[in-house]
Amino acid sequence: MKNSQQKSLSQQNAERNGVFRYGHPKGKLKVMFLGGVGEIGKNMTVFEYGDSIVVIDAGMSFPGNDMPGVDVVIPDFSYLVQNRNKIKAVLLTHGHEDHIGAIAFLVERLGGKLDLYGTKLTLALVENKLAEHSLTDKVNLVTISDKSVVSLGDFTAEFIHVSHSVAGSVAICLRTPVGVVLHTGDFKIDYTPLGNEIMNLNRIAEVGKQGVLLLMSESTNVEKAGYTMSESVVEDTMNKVFHEAKGRRIIVATFASNVDRIGMIIHLAKLYKRKIAVSGRSMIKYIETACRVGQMSVDNDIFVDIDKINNVEDGKLLILSTGSQGEPMSALTRMASGEFNKVHIGSNDTIVISATPIPGNERDIYNVINKLYRLGAMVVYSALEAVHVSGHACQEELKLIYTLVKPKYFIPIHGEYRHLKQHAMLVEKLGHKRSNIIIPDIGDCVELDNSVFKVCGTVTSGSVMVDGLGVGDVGNIVLKDRLSLAEEGILVCSVAVNEKGRVVSSVEVASRGCFFVGDDHNDAMVDELKRLLTEEIYSALRNGKNVPAVKSAIQRTARSYFRSKYKRNPVVLPLVLEV
């Protein structure tokens, strides 16, 4: 028994140093990208060797303007479904939606028990999501911490603490039979972080000295020179805001996931003897979750129900709110629009938006700021004061990680194509061979060992749209119809015919988003369209046409009329009722 234990420990130490047991079948490591490259969000990478698959992250992204009605977008899991029996685990780098937002959909699709590895806060956030889908019994949640090492089939994974804008973030050192892969996750190098330990650069340097075959490094902020500012800068600015807002009510909107920043704001409220009201379901949920796992410690007496804030003087109240991105239904947006009956904005309010607009959200958040100013509030946001810093590494930090690791191969991840290209150019300037860099597309399968590094093919991939309870049932044709409806409106033309093919009702025309009925000009237009449709319907029936042919005639006539007379192209829905 003692010898067996010693052998097991020896083997673990060997694996930690990148040495694998003798007799292991030769092969190549495959890395497949199901998301997170060529796009922002939807991060998901698959590692496969022999009969073992390990997945890093399963994130979602938000729909673009060309996806009306879609709630979220997730990766295509087809490859994982086809290889379900090979999957050893899903490893999670941190708890942001673009890294864990698709977990519930993945668990539901794969079926059976799935092992999920992550830090305490990350797994607590995942557990919340799984509970909403009644899937908590379908997973094994395995809590890890800095320097944790786990064996997963042909892989050994080590977790290394990094700084980011959510607590409990890690990089993953994946030891494989062909060599070591270091996946940075999202990170920044912050020497004065709030509440977190400093990023474990020592361990990353040690891994680099042992030899790294492949570095996969995030690229979100690669276009920015220098270093990302420390989170402590935000604390200094917020302290100044609190000091200058004596006698005024303070409202702070920030990312609910940034629990360290929220903890800092709560600490300042206590320091300045302010009660705290929390507005927004996600904000409440994150605070409760962070407290439950020990990531945040708060005195419950400091909180006041949002319904009772009128009993608290303005100068003794802080409201923590969602809506830092101008989301339509968020608390801050509703306050700015006068639609939040619990909070009425006025001239005695100092409102801090502790975030920068995510690309695509600029117009929404600036509209909110404009409305807040119109209501008389003082607004503090990132263009004016350092009330927000990024959680992503800038160029000098990316250079430092690369220099510490000195990999043989390099793949930039987590960014649009321009970010990945800039990151590739950055490491080239540090002396990395261009032939040892691959900029992947979604679906690419990269094959590598010590002598081979190439894209060997593709796997099924893409974007799966979630709309309500429907997953994947909305495709390009449906989106095209929705865009047409949004841009041109819909025209419904109906008529009734009997079994002998005779018209037994007048033609009726109804419209939504096409023209306004009741205007004299439009009423005349409807009458003219009805006349043209009636003539076309009678002509089709006289020529012995069937119901489908009559529908086509209605559609063709209505489209032609609007196109020629008004340069419009509404969606035409013909209804022929057989009575």
Strand proportion:
15-25%
Indicate the CATH class of the largest domain.
Alpha Beta
Per DSSP, the total helix count is 16
Number of strands: 25
Please tell me the overall pLDDT.
Answer: 89
- Outline: globular
**What count of domains describes the coordinates?**
3
Q: Please give the largest β-sheet.
A: 8 strands, mixed
Q: Biggest sheet: strands side by side, in what order?
A: 7-6-5-3-2-1-19-20
**Residues in helices, as a percent range:** 25-40%
Please identify, by name, the CATH architecture of the largest domain. Answer: 4-Layer Sandwich
The low-confidence runs, each spanning 5 or more residues with pLDDT under 50, are 1-25
- Based on CA atoms alone, the radius of gyration comes out at 29 Å
* CATH H-tier superfamily of the largest domain: Ribonuclease Z/Hydroxyacylglutathione hydrolase-like
Distance between the termini: 86 Å
Structural class: alpha/beta
* CATH domain topology of the largest domain: Metallo-beta-lactamase, Chain A
General description of the model:
The protein is 33% helix and 23% strand. The protein has 579 residues and is an alpha/beta fold. The strands form 5 sheets. An 8-stranded mixed beta sheet has the order 7-6-5-3-2-1-19-20. The protein has a 6-stranded mixed beta sheet with strand order 8-9-10-11-12-18. The chain has a 5-stranded parallel beta sheet with strand order 14-15-13-16-17, sandwiched between helices. Strand 6, helix 5 and strand 7 form a beta-alpha-beta unit. Helix 7 runs parallel beside helix 8 and helix 15 packs antiparallel against helix 16. The longest helix is centred in the C-terminal third of the chain and has 23 residues. The protein starts with a helix and ends with a strand.
